[in-house]
Amino acid sequence: xxxxxxxxxxxxxxxxxxxxxxxxxxxxxxxxxxxxxxxxxxxxxxxxxxxxxxxxxxxxxxxxxxxxxxxxxxxxxxxxxxxxxxxxxxxx
Length: 92
Prior knowledge:
Layout: H1 13-17, E1 29-32, H2 39-47, E2 52-55, H3 57-66, E3 70-71, E4 74-75, H4 77-84, H5 88-91
Parallel strand pairs: 1-2
Antiparallel strand pairs: 3-4
């Protein structure tokens, strides 16, 4: 299992290529960034049929909107509190 954080910069294929060999047979990777993936990175994932999904910042916004977690341009505070409830960051 990989638990690496990558900053919110543009994600190139080199970023995820480094951890692909760590995926074991039958595992599937999910790469999430609040930024975006270069066209080349997206092409490589599709053309080489890597067992990963790429989710960029705009995808997250779409998911939140689809789940009705965004209202008036802001994430639902009730949902955010529920998600962060057990986190020390929520108590700060």
